[in-house]
């Protein structure tokens, strides 16, 4: 049965809030967070940007939900946008959607807020919208992204060779997925990890989030 397409919405967590990406509200904070870190764009289809004006225009384009629905990632600790992610390749007829276009500034990388953001997006897809399949795809050479997919509970499915051309370079794409039948167990794992009792007085995790092995890594 077809499901509804994602729309710009606010997803509230304990450590982070996801908000519909908006240039007027988020571009300045995002520029401050990513400026001077051109390596962040290495695996993305766009960027880096030479000026704030160019970056602001790119955020304006992203805020219109045509092919993808972008959400700003706003950590509770700062109240300022520090990254974004999107729902993309949306196929409501088949109940399939992908999470992608993920930009995490250095201040957001390897934080509880970043993990909770991915949890909130997955929960929205499965619990609120009723999707059957949630996908994660990345350049096969992007080992950090592949490790992140495994850590977050996605299952590795294989490599699509010469799948795309990004920034004039060939891209082999690693495919990962999470299914609706797997979500209840994934949800429990996320929520156990995100519980405040899993962190010590310094904010360090007591138990890591579970991983699934990638047989090709």
Please give a structural write-up.
This protein is of the alpha+beta class and 217 residues long. The protein is globular, with a radius of gyration of 17 Å. It has helices spanning 23-34, 52-62, 112-128, 143-151, 183-194; strands at 11-12, 16-20, 68-75, 83-91, 96-104, 133-139, 155-166, 169-179. An eight-stranded mixed beta sheet has the order 1-2-3-4-5-6-8-7. The longest helix has 17 residues, at 112-128. The chain has one domain: Aminopeptidase. The chain contains five helices and eight strands.
List the helices and strands and how they pair.
Blueprint: E1 11-12, E2 16-20, H1 23-34, H2 52-62, E3 68-75, E4 83-91, E5 96-104, H3 112-128, E6 133-139, H4 143-151, E7 155-166, E8 169-179, H5 183-194
Parallel strand pairs: 5-6
Antiparallel strand pairs: 1-2, 2-3, 3-4, 4-5, 6-8, 7-8
Helix pairs in contact: 1-2, 3-5
Estimate the mean pLDDT confidence: 95
Helix content range: 25-40%
Order of the strands making up the biggest sheet: 1-2-3-4-5-6-8-7
Radius of gyration: 17 Å
How far from one another are the termini? 36 Å
| Overall body shape | globular
Compressed to H and E, one letter per element, the order equals EEHHEEEHEHEEH
> Please, how many helices?
5
Q: Residue ranges: pLDDT <50 for 5 or more in a row?
A: none
Beta-strand share of residues: 25-35%
CATH topology: Aminopeptidase
């Amino acid at each position: 049965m077809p499901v509804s397409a994602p729309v710009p919405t606010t997803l509230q967590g304990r450590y982070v809030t996801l908000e519909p990406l908006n240039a007027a509200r988020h571009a300045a904070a995002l520029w401050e967070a990513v400026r001077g870190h051109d390596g962040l764009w290495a695996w993305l289809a766009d960027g880096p940007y030479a000026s704030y004006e160019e970056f602001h225009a790119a955020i304006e384009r992203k805020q219109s939900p045509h092919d993808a629905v972008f959400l700003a990632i706003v950590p509770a600790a700062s109240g300022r946008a520090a990254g974004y992610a999107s729902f993309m390749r949306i196929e409501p007829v088949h109940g399939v959607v992908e999470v992608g276009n993920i930009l995490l500034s250095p201040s957001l990388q390897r934080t509880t807020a970043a993990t909770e953001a991915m949890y909130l997006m997955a929960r929205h897809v499965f619990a609120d919208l009723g999707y059957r399949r949630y996908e994660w795809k990345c350049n096969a050479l992007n080992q950090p992204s592949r490790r992140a997919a495994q850590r977050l509970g996605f299952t590795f499915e294989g490599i699509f060779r010469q799948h795309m051309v990004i920034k004039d370079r060939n891209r082999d794409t690693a495919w990962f997925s999470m299914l609706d039948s797997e979500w209840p167990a994934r949800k429990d794992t996320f929520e156990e990890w995100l519980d405040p009792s899993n962190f010590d007085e310094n904010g360090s995790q007591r138990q890591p989030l579970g991983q699934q092995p990638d047989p090709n890594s």
